[in-house]
Amino acid sequence: MRLSGKVAVVTGASRGIGRAIALRLAAEGADLVVNYSRSGEAAAKTAAEIEALGVKALVLQGDVSSREDCRELAENTIAKFRKIDILVNNAGITRDNIVARMKPEEWQQVIDTNLTGCFNCTQAFMRPFLRQKTGGAIINIASVVGLTGAAGQANYAAAKAGIIGFTKALARELAGRQVTVNAIAPGFVDTEMTGALTEKQREAILGLIPLGRVAGPEEIAAAAAFLAAEGRYITGQVLSVNGGLFI
Ligand SMILES: NC(=O)c1ccc[n+]([C@@H]2O[C@H](COP(=O)([O-])OP(=O)(O)OC[C@H]3O[C@@H](n4cnc5c(N)ncnc54)[C@H](O)[C@@H]3O)[C@@H](O)[C@H]2O)c1
Questions:
Q1: Per the domain annotation, does 140 fall within a domain?
Q2: Known catalytic residue at 156
Q3: Pairing between strand 57-61 and 86-89?
Q4: Across all residues in the chain, what is the average pLDDT?
Q5: Spatial CB neighbours of 144, under 8 Å, sequence gap ≥ 6
Q6: Number of domains in the chain
Q7: Which domain holds residue 123?
Q8: Ligand 1 pocket check: which of 93, 119, 214, 246 to mutate, most ligand atoms within 8 Å of Cβ?
Q9: pLDDT tier at 196 (50, 70, 90 boundaries)?
Q10: CATH code for the domain of 168
Q11: Which pLDDT belongs to residue 69?
């Protein structure tokens, strides 16, 4: 129970990687805020599984691309738990297209959710992080694509590379307060986001991964738990969890 007594907020925690991270942090003893944007039913299910682990769960709806929603998320978190120790900026979307055909709204939606969402949410929690004097951990979910680029994902790659720059800058800003800021760059993870891939695309991807398989969401969650529980002297870093896809 490395995170006993800690309070963690995970954005986009109703399913996929966010859900796995929320469950893992709860299993380590943290109370959880389960943020979701649309699927309230799935978020309630995640929360019930968290509570079954013997910790508290608070479900809060909110779209991370909305500054107002992020402000409310922070306010309601502090009203309930009085503090935040761990913030995981996980919410993300894809709107894939080659640049030649990419619609401005496909570009904008991905930047607004994946990059500006990370900024909005972090800024909303900045005051408690700065005031409480107990340090903390901010973990931003980037992607291998933010390091390598990927054809058809210029919007997503730009947002994820942006998250990496944001992480490094914020790590410098918050180090004096003992708040660590790191990014996790997953490779291919078995979630609904990658469920849209064709069998042919999956085969091609598998051929590029030295470990020969995609990750389970719980393998990304293990990295988040490590950073949150054992990473007190790790800040401004990008932890690649990609099966060797990018070495
Ligand atoms: N699956 C992968 O292979 C992979 C690889 C690298 C990085 N990632 C990143 O991991 C994160 C989670 O991805 P996933 O695979 O679990 O995807 P997913 O689509 O299964 O889950 C994404 C979650 O984010 C939530 N979300 C989307 N827009 C939101 C918004 N505006 N406000 C709040 N919540 C919102 C969704 O409701 C969902 O719960 C994303 O940032 C994604 O870019 C995924």
A1: yes
A2: yes
A3: unpaired
A4: 97
A5: 185, 186, 187, 240, 242, 245, 246
A6: 1
A7: 7-241
A8: 93
A9: confident
A10: 3.40.50.720
A11: 98
